[in-house]
Predict the structure.
Amino acid sequence: MAGKGGKKKSGRASPGRPRGKSAGRKAKPAEPILDRRPTLSQSKAQEALGKLRVGISGLDKKLVRLLNERAELVVEVGKVKRRAGLPVYTPHREAEVIERVIGYSGGPLPDRTLEGVYRELMSGSFQLQQPLRIGYLGPAGSYSHMAAVKHFGSSVEFEDLREIAGVFTEVQRGHVQYGLVPIENSTGGGIVETLDAFLDDRTNVNICAEVQIAVHHALLANCAPKDVRRIHSKPEVFSQCRVWLATQYPQAELIPGASSSRSAQTAAEECATALKIGATPGSAAIGSRLAGEIYGLNVLFEKIEDNPSNITRFFVISRHAAQRSGDDKTSIMFTTADKPGALVSVLSVFHHAGINLSHIDKRPSGRTNWHYTFFIDAIGHREDPVLAAAIKEAATHCEHLAVLGSYPRSKRIL
């Protein structure tokens, strides 16, 4: 039957408009049936879980047996390495093992989980072969500390070194076998202290691996948010939270420190002192949740970084060079001759050789004003014939050129 205007009424309700008495009122969202009517009774669920857990326990028993069989082989590997004077930690082998294990998997475990399991397994293997000491920019709770644990696992020994230059020095002296230093952040760019440490001509220190971790900053304090007057952290951390700080704490004094964890320690000490003399605490720090837990600071705000995809890249440095893995990077430092087009001449060598440069940075040379040292990352290993020839040719256009190291390319963010 036609209504007004001769339009035929539809037998179906219009989308989004309920029919009948509910018309004109907001429809109540339907509840999932499974939430109200469980498919298993409690007794049957417990029975099913019991059977599954028996199966899991059986697999755990087999896994432990197989892991110990693997460990026995690892001990023999350690004996061979010691007799041959070979390093315990070999980045190319680590990369090979992780990629092979991930290739074996058909799921459902995520690749990142498998990598974490095998990094811990390899950490225990290091301990069986020869105890390792890893130096990092401390104190405990720093992002360098977090990166070191994620990369090397929890079975090695970690040495808290208070400055990035100190990490280089202790590796060079052999007091630690490996050091981990930050080199670049996806928001703030190059880490000045690390670049400057490479300028000191430490020719017997090599980059042997790279590590990438996701970095999330938190505002840590033992006072109310409104009472924060001073904020401690590294300059790079301030730059990564610039917009948030300008919006939330435009009047706060920003106090730079050597590390985010040391800044957390300082803020905790200042808060304690204020309470002791009866004053209102007003010191805060920007750092990791781990630093807050270690130094007894509350988390006022989490994830305050301006870029939620905030990644920091670290280098692992040692006195040993890394072997080819088949998917490598090479870091190079050079100073160009003082003539027109010198930098273009160097970069053109890599371009004509078909070599991709994934990173470029610069620092004042420290020798002559307005004279710069450049840092580049090239895809490939220094022993690859094409890259080796390009490096040799590029050196002819430079006052100084040094290969800082070749290492397996990091494929996942830890």
Residues 180 and 316 are 5 Å apart (CA to CA). The longest strand covers residues 398-408. The chain has 13 helices and 15 strands. Residues 42-84 form the longest helix (43 residues).
